[in-house]
Amino acid sequence: MQEGGVIRLLPDSVANQIAAGEVIQRPASVIKELMENSIDAGAKEVKVVVQDAGRTLIMVTDDGCGMTETDARMSFERHATSKIREASDLYHLSTMGFRGEALASITAVAQVEMQTRVEGAELGTRVETAGCEIGAVEPCATPKGTRISVRNLFFNIPARRRFLKSDATEMRQVSQEFLRVALAHIDIDVSLVSDGQTIYKLSSGGIKQRIAGVVGTGMTQHLIPIEAETDLVKIKGFIGTPETAKKRGVEQFFFVNDRYMKSASFHKAIVDAYKGIIAVDVTPCYFVYIDVDPQTIDVNVSPQKTEIKFDDEQSIWKILNSAARKSLSDGGIMPSIDFESSERIEIPTFGVGSRDGETETYNPFAREREQAQRFASTVNGWERLYTGLEKAERTYSSSVGSYNPNVVERYDPFAMEASTAIQREMFPEAERGVIEIDSSRFWQHIGKYIITTVPNGLMIIDQHRAHNRILFDTYKQIMQHGNISGQMLLYPERVSMSQNDACIVSELQGELAQAGIDVTVEGNEVVISSTPTQIEISAVRDILEELVYDCQQGGADVRSGIGDYIIGRLAEKVAMPYGRELTAEEMKDMYEKLMTSAERGYTPQGKPTYRVVSNNDIERLF
Fold it and tell me: How far apart are CA 266 and CA 233, in angstroms?
C-alpha cells in the first residue's frame, strides 16, 4: 500500500482558476463585479466599454476614491477586501463586492491592467497582471478614480472560452448585468459602449427616470407606484398595469438593499395580486425596491449573489402582496363594485374576424385570394392553391356567425408522438394526392375535433392545429414567390421595448416585411405601420414579443429559420379557434387540404394535428 503522496496542496494558480469558475462564468460576470467595485468606491459616474461582447476587451472606468500603490497591489490577492474586518461584519453588509475575490478571480483567467489614483496625489499607479502573475507596478498619469481593462478573457483556459455563446448572446448577457446594476443604483451616471457604439447612457435621477432610460418612456406610462413601510421592511417602486403583461420577455426586477435579487417566492406575491385581472398565461412587469435591516438577510448564499435568504420571508411576502393589491386598487385597476346600482355595464362585442366591429364586410381571405389570382397564370400548380383558398373562404364565411367565445381555450389532449408508419398505412390515397371521401363521414366533437372513419379505425383531427398547418403551407408558398401582402394601418402602432429588444427587431425588418409586417425602430420604440390582412394588431405585438424572446434564448439557431418562424406564428394566431361549428362539407374540405400537406401530422410548432384510434384499440375497449 502506498504511503503518503496522495494528498497535496494545489498551486495558487490552479486554486485561483477554480475559484474564478465560481465567480467569473462569462464576460457579464466581469462587468457585474467591476461595476459593483466602482460603486463601493463612491463613484458618481461609471463607464463600461466592451469589444467583441467582452471576449477581447472589457474596460470599466469610474471617478471613485481610487487606490494608493499598496492598495492597488494588494487588491489582486485572494481574500483581499476593504469591506470587512471580522466574521461578524458579514451579517450587516451594505456594500456590493464584499467577498474580496473579484479581481483575484478575474486576473486568474484574463490579462488585466489597472490604472488608479487617489484624490490629491500627483501620480497614480499602473498594475499589470496575467494568469495570477503580477507584472509591472509603476507610476502613471491618470485621472482620479480607477480604470480596469480586462483583455482576452479565458485566454489560459481554452475549454472555457469555447463554451462561450455567440457574440449576440453574450452581449445580451452583458447588457442584462449592466442594467441590473444601473437600475439598482439610480443616483449614478452609467453608460455602456459596445464596439464603439453607445448602447446606454443613463443619467442619475429618480426611479421612474431610470426605468424610462432602460425600457423607454412608452412603458413608464403603464406603471403604477407601489409603496409600503413597516418596522420589518420598506417597499417602493412600480408595477405594471395589465397592458404590460406578456407571456415572455417581460421586465421584472427585485432589488434588496440596492442589490439585484431573484426570488420565485416574491414573484408569486406580485403575480397573485393580479388574479382575475390578467390571463393565467401572462405575467406583469415590475420594478420593486426592498429595504431591510442587513442583519436580517444573508446575501452570501451563492457566488453570484443573486439569491438572498431572509429571516422572515413569509411576513415580507404578505406585505409585498398586500402592497401590490393596494397599488392596483388605487390605480383604478381593481375598481370597487356598487352592488346597489341597477345599471348594467355595456361591454362591446365583436364577431370573429371583425376589425373595428365591421363583421359583415371583413374577409380574411380576400388578400390571399387576390394574390393567388395574380399568380394563377404564371406559377405551376398555383391553381390548386387558389382552389384551396376559395374553399377556405367559403368555410370561413359560413361559420363566422357560429363561433362561441365561451368555449375553453386550446390545450394539448395528446402526449405521445404521432406515428409516421400509421400515417402511411391509414392514408395511401394521400400519398397519391387523390382524396375522395363522402362528406357524410365527418362529425365534429365539442367544437374542437373533427372525427372521420379511415380504413383501420377512427381519425380524430384537431381543427385549430389542422388549420394552423394549412395556413402555414399557404403562407410558405406565397413567400416563395413574393411577400405576404400587408395592409397599412391608419394610425401606426407604437410598441415600447428595451433598447436591446428594439435592436433585435431592427435586425429582422427584412424578414418581417416578407410576412407582411412593416416596422421601423425609433429609439426604444418599434413602430408597426403594416400588418397581414387577416391578423389583429394585438397578435402582431405578441409575435414581436415572442420573436424577441426566442431570439434572445436561441440566438443564431432561431435566426437561421426566422422566415418559417414568423409565418408559423402568423398561422398559429390566425388559425380558427376552438368552438367554431363546421358543416360536414367544411370538415371534409379541411381534411382534404390537410392530407395534401407533406407535414400533415404536425403543426409548425411540432404539435400533432391528428390521431388515429385503430380498430384493435376500439375492440379492446369492449
Answer: 13
